[in-house]
């Protein structure tokens, strides 16, 4: 069932979100300072490509204030726009009864798009 959900996900906005993350990651990796943000964007892109069957957890150890600073910079650089894209697709899919499971995946990814540092994908 996860495979079917992921295949339908690709058709209804998943591939567009994946491309958005990959393009953002490539743009961020151009500079040395943006490489950590680009790597995080690539990880989020892989989640956006195949989200069913994966969970998001906070890291067991305390990443410290560096994680908070990185999240603030991420939010300023472009995290808000990716989160708004997830929110748009989530609302669009929630309008239909059939699209609710895929809308839930987008809503799950909104919080991750806003603050990705200090979390991991399981």
Automatic annotation (TrEMBL):
<dbReference type="InterPro" id="IPR031308">
    <property type="entry name" value="UCP028777"/>
</dbReference>
<feature type="domain" description="Inner membrane component">
    <location>
        <begin position="69"/>
        <end position="119"/>
    </location>
</feature>
<dbReference type="Pfam" id="PF03733">
    <property type="entry name" value="YccF"/>
</dbReference>
<keyword id="KW-0812">Transmembrane</keyword>
<keyword id="KW-1133">Transmembrane helix</keyword>
<feature type="transmembrane region" description="Helical">
    <location>
        <begin position="7"/>
        <end position="39"/>
    </location>
</feature>
<dbReference type="GO" id="GO:0005886">
    <property type="term" value="C:plasma membrane"/>
</dbReference>
<feature type="transmembrane region" description="Helical">
    <location>
        <begin position="72"/>
        <end position="100"/>
    </location>
</feature>
<dbReference type="InterPro" id="IPR005185">
    <property type="entry name" value="YccF"/>
</dbReference>
<feature type="domain" description="Inner membrane component">
    <location>
        <begin position="4"/>
        <end position="54"/>
    </location>
</feature>
<keyword id="KW-0472">Membrane</keyword>
<dbReference type="InterPro" id="IPR052937">
    <property type="entry name" value="Inner_membrane_protein"/>
</dbReference>
<protein>
    <submittedName>
        <fullName>YccF domain-containing protein</fullName>
    </submittedName>
</protein>
């Amino acid at each position: 069932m996860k495979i079917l959900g992921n295949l339908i996900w690709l058709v209804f906005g998943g591939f567009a979100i994946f491309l958005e993350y990959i393009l953002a990651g490539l743009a961020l990796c151009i500079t040395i300072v943006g490489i950590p943000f680009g790597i995080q964007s690539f990880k989020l892109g892989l989640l956006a490509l195949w989200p069913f069957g994966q969970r998001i957890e906070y890291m067991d150890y305390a990443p410290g204030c560096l994680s908070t600073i990185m999240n603030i910079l991420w939010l300023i650089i472009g995290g808000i726009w990716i989160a708004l894209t997830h929110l748009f697709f989530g609302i669009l899919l929630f309008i239909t009864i059939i699209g609710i499971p895929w809308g839930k995946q987008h809503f799950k990814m909104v919080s991750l798009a806003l603050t990705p540092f200090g979390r991991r994908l399981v």
